[in-house]
Amino acid sequence: MELQFLGAAGTVTGSRYLLRRGTHRVLIDCGMFQGVKRLRERNREAFPVDPRSLHAVILTHAHLDHSGWLPALVRAGFKGHVYCTPGTQALAGILLRDAARLQEEDANYANRKGFSKHHPAEPLYTLEDAEAALDLLRPIDWHQHVNIDGMKITFHHAGHIIGASSVHIATDGGCLVFSGDVGRRYDPVLNPPEPLPACDWLVTESTYGDRLHPDVDAMAELAESVTRCAQRGGVVVMPAFAVGRAQMLLYLLNTLKRQGRIPDMPIILDSPMASKATQVLLQFPEEHHLSPEECHALEKDVIYIDSVEESIALNSRRGPHVIVSASGMATGGRVLHHLKRLLPEPRNQVIFVGFQAAGTRGDALIHGSQSVKIHGEYIPVHAPVLNIDALSAHADQAELMDWLGTMPQKPRQVFVTHGEPAASDTLRLQIQDRLGWPVIVPEPLEKFQLQR
């Protein structure tokens, strides 16, 4: 077998791994590149192999850095099946359609305003492309097997978001595990990841491979920041990943309000995608530990904004309130319009709760940028910006090492991917020194022969 790293090598985005076995080719994840311009430009590049030669795609989960390039792959000629868990199928239907709509809207907006360098600006793919990709999805239940040309595929719970999995691939020449994104041991909403099954070769993420989540009371930090903003008469805007973190924030904010730890102020979710993702969370109770009462509160105690007109109307809302809106790294979507309006005012508050990839607006804001470029215009930053890293959906270094330690035997080789260079190399050293396993941090497009 041969394994090639087409994405998430040297970066935390664009997860794509190509597995060749004889004449058969399977792609594990088909992610979109996000972050700095040189990475985003890779989304426009031709795929390294003919998409028509791929027999199947396997998705670890639905986040766009793992699934978001699938419509482009289908547009380029891929016609095989796409295997995933039922939860991933449900969320991919929301995410891919929304991504296509946003790209079409952003292209139209850029053409109307004339700030794009491309004339005309065109979306990476359309809603029609997304629908064609979704038609190829084939859901497989947890711990069930599907055979792809002699490769037995099994999905194991990874935490992180609904449907997120680690993928076990068994062949007569050995077995592999792709970690996907590994969730937290004590996530406020989701169940923890399963123990790691035995394998010969392991591909593991390293998003937080060089750091530990701060040992702080994240609920207290959130309550204090929201309360101070309310006392100033300001608005709290929380850029949040529509799938996963948005639902967690709604749960935490509702809990704080019921406990009287923040003022009785409106909690608004301005993201049609996140609204739908909240319904998916409620459809898969076996993957989270919220009570029926807590689930009901997510439905009745939140103001859901769907239309563009309703979103624009938030501009005239008076009094303290909280707006949760996508995207989580402030790379696109409705949250940009809220940031554009609210950042210049010091009475307002911006709160991030997830990983911020290098080069994103979120990364610039949490590192103290005095201005950020939004829709071709530099917006001054006078509102305080807080990053509550303890609420991340990714396992930190200690949690990753604990998870790796659940493997019942030593693997032949570990490949560390899906992290910034410092994070990947730090985790490599941890695995090498503490577990004594052979570890490699692959380069982009690097190939490895997998032989027992």
Question: What is the level 1 CATH name of the largest domain?
Answer: Alpha Beta
DSSP strand count: 22
Terminal CA distance:
10 Å
Q: Helix/strand/pairing class, anyone?
A: alpha/beta
Q: Residue-averaged pLDDT, rounded?
A: 93
Unreliable spans are none
Helix run count: 14
User: Helix share of residues?
Assistant: 25-40%
Strand order of the largest sheet: 6-5-4-3-2-1-22
Radius of gyration: 21 Å
Shape: globular
The CATH architecture of the largest domain would be: 4-Layer Sandwich
CATH superfamily of the largest domain: Ribonuclease Z/Hydroxyacylglutathione hydrolase-like
Write the layout of secondary structure elements.
Elements: E1 2-5, E2 17-21, E3 24-28, H1 37-40, E4 56-58, H2 64-67, H3 70-75, E5 81-84, H4 86-113, H5 127-134, E6 137-139, E7 145-148, E8 151-157, E9 165-171, E10 174-178, E11 201-205, H6 218-231, E12 235-239, H7 245-258, E13 267-270, H8 272-283, H9 292-300, E14 303-305, H10 308-313, E15 321-325, H11 335-342, E16 349-352, H12 361-366, E17 371-374, E18 377-380, E19 385-387, H13 397-404, E20 413-417, H14 421-435, E21 439-440, E22 447-449
Parallel strand pairs: 3-4, 4-5, 5-6, 10-11, 11-20, 12-15, 12-16, 13-14, 13-15, 16-19, 20-21
Antiparallel strand pairs: 1-2, 1-22, 2-3, 7-8, 8-9, 9-10, 17-18
Helix pairs in contact: 4-5, 4-8, 7-9
Summarize the model shown:
By secondary structure, this protein is an alpha/beta fold.
Overview of the structural elements:
The chain is an alpha/beta fold and 452 residues long. It has two domains: 2-211 and 393-449, Metallo-beta-lactamase, Chain A (4-Layer Sandwich), CATH 3.60.15.10; 218-391, 3-Layer(aba) Sandwich (Rossmann fold), CATH 3.40.50.10890. The protein contains 14 helices and 22 strands. The protein has helices at 37-40, 64-67, 70-75, 86-113, 127-134, 218-231, 245-258, 272-283, 292-300, 308-313, 335-342, 361-366, 397-404, 421-435; strands at residues 2-5, 17-21, 24-28, 56-58, 81-84, 137-139, 145-148, 151-157, 165-171, 174-178, 201-205, 235-239, 267-270, 303-305, 321-325, 349-352, 371-374, 377-380, 385-387, 413-417, 439-440, 447-449. A hairpin with a 2-residue loop joins strand 9 (165-171) and strand 10. Helix 4 runs antiparallel to helix 5 (127-134) and helix 7 packs across helix 9 (292-300). The longest helix has 28 residues, at 86-113. It is globular, with a radius of gyration of 21 Å.
